[in-house]
Amino acid sequence: MNARLKETAHVTGIEWLDSENALLRLNAPEAARLAQPGQFVLLAAGQMLNRPFGVALTDPDAGMVTVGIKKVGIGTGALLDLEQGSAIRLLGPFGHGFSLDNVNRAYVIGGGTGIFPLLFLLHVLRSRGVETFAGCGFRTLQQALLQEDFSDVSDQYLTACESGGGDVSGTAVDALDALYLGHGRTERTRVFACGPIPMLRAVNRWCETHDVAAECSFEARMGCGFGICRGCAVPVLKAGALDYDRCCVEGPVFDRRLIAWEALS
Ligand SMILES: Cc1cc2nc3c(=O)[nH]c(=O)nc-3n(C[C@H](O)[C@H](O)[C@H](O)COP(=O)(O)OP(=O)(O)OC[C@H]3O[C@@H](n4cnc5c(N)ncnc54)[C@H](O)[C@@H]3O)c2cc1C
Ligand code: FES
Predict the structure, then answer these.
(1) ipTM of the shown complex
(2) I need a surface site. Which of 3, 93, 141, 232 has the fewest CB within 10 A?
(3) Range 16-26 average pLDDT
(4) At a CB cut-off of 8 Å and minimum separation 6, what does 55 contact?
(5) Closest ligand 2 atom to the C-alpha of 225?
(6) Ligand 2 centroid – CA 99 distance (Å)
(7) Closest C-alpha to 113, from 146, 154, 84, 142
(8) How much is the pLDDT for 48?
(9) What is the Å distance from ligand 2's center to 237 Cα?
(10) Residue 232: CB within 6 Å of ligand 2?
(11) 41 CA distance to ligand 2 middle (Å)
(12) pLDDT band at 3 (very low <50, low <70, confident <90, very high)
C-alpha cells in the first residue's frame, strides 16, 4: 500500500444529527488533499478492524475530512464514542469515485448512509458550475437528515418520505421523478446515486425507462478494503458475460450499465 495513504487522524469534533447519526470531523491533511467525491476512507480506533466510510466533506486548506456515520455496531459505536483530540488510524482515500467530466446537469439521489458522500459530490459539482438537483429518501420525516445542507448545494432539493410529510410522498426515486419532471435533461445529464441496493436497483430501472446515464455507488460489505481479499465482489457484465469487480478498487462507484443487476443480492 502506498505509504502516503496511511495517516494518524485526530478527532476535532462529533456533531450528532439525531440519536443514531453523526458527522465525525477529522484533522487528516493528506486525505483532505487527495480525496475525490465517491471515494472512501478506512477508519479504526484502538484494536478495532478498519471500517469503510464515504468521504462526506473535505477542506484541504484546513486539512479537514468529515464522514457521516450511522451507529450500527461495535466499530461505528467506538468511533462515535471518541473524545475530541483522540487519534485514530485512517487509510485512504480509496476507490474509484464519481466521474465529474462531461456533465452539466446532475440529479443526485441518496438513501440510508448513502446520503453522506453525496454532500461532497454536490459541493464539487457546484464548484464546477454543474446544475444540481438532489433528492434523499427516508422512511419518516423525523428520520430526515441534513436537509439544509443539501438545499444549500442544490438548485432544488426534495426530501421524500415513505410515510408522507416530506416534499414528496414515496421513495428517493419518486423525488428523482419529481425533479426530472420539473427540469428535464440536457445532452450531458447524469444521475448520481448512493444508497441501499433496492434503491440503486430502482434508480437503474428509472434511468433505463428514461434513457439517462447514471453512476451508482455501492456500500458492499468489505474485508480488507484495499483490493486483496475479494470479499467485496460486485457482479458486473463484461462483454456480455458475468464477472465480479471489487467494490473497494473498481468501485464503489460503477456505471449502472456495467452492473449485472439480476445477479446482485
Ligand atoms: C464504500 C462504503 C462506504 C460506506 N459509507 C458509509 C458512510 O458514509 N456512513 C456510514 O454510516 N456507513 C457507511 N458504510 C457502512 C459502514 O462501513 C458499516 O456500517 C460499518 O462498517 C459497520 O461497522 P460496525 O462495526 O459498527 O458494525 P458491525 O458490527 O460490523 O455490523 C452491524 C450491523 O451493520 C450491518 N452492516 C455492516 N456493514 C454494512 C454495510 N457495508 N452495508 C450494510 N450493512 C452493513 C451488519 O450486517 C450488521 O447488521 C459504508 C460502507 C462501504 C463499503
Ligand atoms: S474488501 Fe478486500 S478486496 Fe475489496
Answers:
(1) 0.95
(2) 3
(3) 98
(4) 31, 35, 37, 39, 40, 41, 65, 66, 67, 93, 117, 120
(5) 1
(6) 22
(7) 146
(8) 85
(9) 19
(10) yes
(11) 13
(12) very low
- Mean pLDDT of all residues in 229-253: 96
Crossing angle of helices 197-210/172-183, nearest 10°?
30
Cα angle, residue 61 at apex, residues 249 and 21 outer, rounded to 5° = 60
- The pLDDT assigned to 4 comes to 52
Q: Is 76 in the pocket of ligand 1 (CB under 6 A)?
A: yes
Q: Could you tell me where the DSSP H helices lie in the chain?
A: 29-34, 74-80, 115-127, 147-152, 172-183, 197-210
Pocket test for ligand 1, best of 113, 200, 229, 246 (most atoms within 8 A of CB): 113
Domains in the chain, start-ordered, CATH in brackets?
A: 3-94 (2.40.30.10), 105-219 (3.40.50.80)
Give the nearest ligand 2 atom to 246 CA. Answer: 4
The ligand whose atoms approach the alpha carbon of 248 most closely is 2
pLDDT per residue as tens digits for the range 123-165: 999 999 999 999 999 999 999 999 999 999 999 999 999 999 9
Ligand 2 pocket, residue 210 CB under 6 Å? no
Task: Identify the residue whose C-alpha is closest to ligand 1 atom 28.
Answer: 73
Dump strand ranges (E) for the chain. 6-16, 21-27, 40-44, 51-54, 57-59, 64-70, 87-94, 105-111, 131-138, 156-161, 168-169, 189-194, 213-217, 233-238, 241-246, 253-255
pLDDT digits (tens, 9 = 90+) for 99-127: 999 999 999 999 999 999 999 999 999 99
DSSP-assigned letter for residue 252: B
| Under 8 Å between Cβ of 66 and 90 | no
**In this predicted model, what pLDDT tens digit does every residue of 238-247 receive, in sequence order?**
999 999 999 9
Question: Which residues are bridge partners to 150 per DSSP?
Answer: none
- Residue 143 CA, chain-centre distance (Å), reads 18
